[in-house]
Design goal:
Largest sheet: 5 strands, mixed, barrel
Number of strands: 6
Number of helices: 15
Structural class: alpha+beta
Strand content: 5-15%
Shape: globular
Strand order of the largest sheet: 1-3-4-6-5
Helix content: 55-70%
Oligomer: single chain
Length: 457
């Protein structure tokens, strides 16, 4: 029996890319964890990628749900997962082979002088500091551990130091980690407008009271240089650590602000300007997993607007997962990437239905719609990220739902004011940077107090 002609029009969600994204992700994880299993993992994943869509296409009508697609489109539904899985498997295995052939891999267990470029801001650890870095000729990223002096070095700085070469404690493409010993020599400081913006925003925030001085740069552009180990523990224990990691909320605010300013222009102009804003945003905040996922999803969303297929968030998320894992397989074993994807999927699938259900209850039926929606968003994000936290980290904050609800009203003002301050810094308007940071300070202080109180419970 052929499917009805309006099935595609009535479909609420386009889930045809979901099997491809899940299998591509699982394949990358399997190949990174056990490279020698690639010869078994790849054929099995391709067979599964072909079998699952074909089975759904063949039997969905008997389940009373309708076919995913019909006719020649069924070929794409079956072929795309197979191609995605094969591409990810081959790309991941090639990168691992290149990493194993690098000269540093032969020095595991010994010492070597290395030159590396930091790709993330150093973060305080129990024994000093750590940062992600890249080494010329070595695929993927390495984790570099050093003493507290590493905290004074910013992202995009090229440094040189004697380091102990060790096997990576966590699965990754490079397979190694570095323990920096002795003095760290700065070969090339960060250059360009993005580095100047980050530094100016950080310096200006130091004049603020305790709390806002570190939270505003972190929430606006992901700069956590002011965070001590205690600060990180407080944010994690309270369940508010996601606020200091730039993610989809920041991207949505940036794109929304740009589109609002250019509301007088046509859709192509608005999309073009929003794309430029996203490019500048990434240049300033860096390439953290949550940022990459959010930006790629945002770009696909902008493309959907141009071609007239807006609203297919799950399809955009799935395409973003496939593309990012193909370009950077290390993301497949990143906790931040997994949390970001889980939170996005949960908000898309659960937030709106949950808000409708809450509005229909006796208790919340008379509450303002924005408040009900905020509660729904917090519950949805909390529920979908709990399994990821339990599996990969082993810790779940029992007060995160309450803390997020209390902090929610202050998040947007801090993020918007901080982002505008970054723009002002790019234009060298120092007085405006200070004014915007002081405007955001009360809200940042409130978030800091909520985090402290929630962590102490």
């Amino acid at each position: 029996m052929p499917p009805p002609s309006d099935l595609r029009a009535r479909a609420g969600l386009d889930v045809r890319l979901v099997p491809a994204a899940v299998l591509a992700w699982a394949t990358a994880v399997a190949v990174i964890m056990r490279p020698e299993w690639a010869i078994v993992v790849v054929p099995s994943s391709i067979a599964t990628a072909v079998a699952l869509p074909w089975a759904w296409q063949r039997w969905s009508w008997r389940w009373g749900r309708g076919a995913v697609t019909s006719g020649w489109r069924a070929i794409a539904t079956i072929v795309v997962p197979a191609v995605a899985v094969a591409s990810v498997a081959v790309a991941t295995r090639i990168r691992i082979a290149q990493a194993r052939a690098h000269e540093l891999y032969e020095d595991i267990g010994g010492m070597a002088k290395v030159q590396l470029r930091l790709v993330t801001e150093p973060k305080a650890t129990e024994f000093g500091a750590s940062a992600k870095a890249r080494i010329e000729g070595l695929p993927g990223q390495v984790t570099a551990f050093g003493d507290e002096s590493l905290l004074a070095i910013t992202r995009d700085t090229v440094i040189e130091s004697t380091a102990g070469i060790r096997v990576a404690s966590k699965p990754c493409i490079s397979g190694i980690q570095l323990n920096l010993r002795g003095d760290v020599e700065v070969i090339a400081p960060p250059q360009g407008l993005a580095a100047d913006v980050r530094q100016q925003l950080f310096d200006s925030a130091q004049n603020l009271p305790v709390g806002p001085d570190r939270l505003i740069p972190a929430m606006a552009i992901g700069d956590e240089r002011g965070f001590s180990l205690t600060d990180g523990d407080v944010m994690t224990a309270s369940g508010l650590s996601h606020l200091s990691a730039v993610s989809g909320a920041n991207v949505a605010l940036v794109v929304g602000a740009v589109v609002a300013v250019f509301s007088w222009a046509g859709p192509r102009v608005r999309v073009a300007v929003a794309a430029l804003a996203l490019y500048g945003f990434v240049a300033i905040v860096g390439t953290e997993p949550s940022v990459l996922r959010a930006v790629v999803t945002g770009c696909i969303g902008l493309l959907a607007i141009l071609v007239g297929r807006a609203g297919q968030a799950i399809a955009a998320l799935s395409a973003g997962i496939i593309g990012l894992i193909l370009l950077a397989p290390d993301l497949s074993v990143s906790v931040g990437f997994a949390l970001s994807v889980a939170a996005t999927a949960g908000l898309v699938l659960l937030a709106e239905p949950l808000a409708r259900r809450l509005s229909a209850t006796t208790v919340m039926g008379t509450w303002p719609a924005p408040v009900v929606r905020a509660v729904a968003v917090s519950i949805a994000a909390h529920v979908v990220t709990m399994p990821v936290l339990a599996l990969l980290i082993g810790e779940i904050s029992h007060v995160s739902l309450l803390a997020n609800l209390l902090a929610a009203p202050a998040v947007a003002p801090v993020t918007i004011a901080g982002s505008l301050a970054a723009v002002a810094a790019a234009l060298h308007l120092n007085w405006l940077v200070s004014a915007l940071l002081w405007c955001a300070a009360p809200c940042a202080w409130w978030i800091h107090q909520v985090a402290r109180l929630a962590a102490g419970i």
